[in-house]
Design brief:
By secondary structure, this protein is mainly beta. It is built from no helices and eleven strands. The strands form two sheets. Strands 2, 4, 5, 6, 9, 10 and 11 form a seven-stranded mixed sheet that branches.
Length: about 130
């Protein structure tokens, strides 16, 4: 089992940047495929980005491509989401998630993930 704690959220102006971090404790992070999701008020949780156990493969939602970068440092047991050129529509609670089986075919589905953090709020002002 692994515990996940997100950090790095905050208030930023449109066009700005934030770097989210997801620190894992318990089982080592390299055992899991990892992802970031987000959920805005009144909306369903949506996939943002994912990364394979080794970090060799990354996947992005269309809304994140070219602006967001997911990475991981397995030695530090941490996954990151670098967010640039932020837009007001990026405002949401951002969650990291861990998948024991690294199910690439269903990588965008929240129910593919076994463990979740508590989330960190990102607010982008216009």
């Amino acid at each position: 089992q692994v515990q996940l704690v997100e950090s790095g959220g905050g208030l930023v102006q449109a066009g700005g940047s934030l770097r989210l971090a997801c620190a894992a404790s318990g089982r080592i992070l390299v055992s899991y495929g990892m992802a970031w999701f987000r959920q805005a008020p009144g909306k369903e949780r949506e996939f943002v980005a994912a990364i394979s156990r080794s970090g060799g493969n990354t996947y992005y939602a269309d809304s994140a491509k070219g602006r967001f970068t997911i990475s991981r440092d397995n030695a530090k047991n941490t996954v990151y989401l670098q967010m640039n050129s932020l837009k007001p529509e990026d405002t949401a609670v951002y969650y990291c998630a861990a998948d024991e089986l690294e199910r690439v075919a269903v990588i965008t589905r929240p129910d593919s993930y076994d463990y979740w953090g508590q989330g960190t709020q990102v607010t982008v002002s216009s």
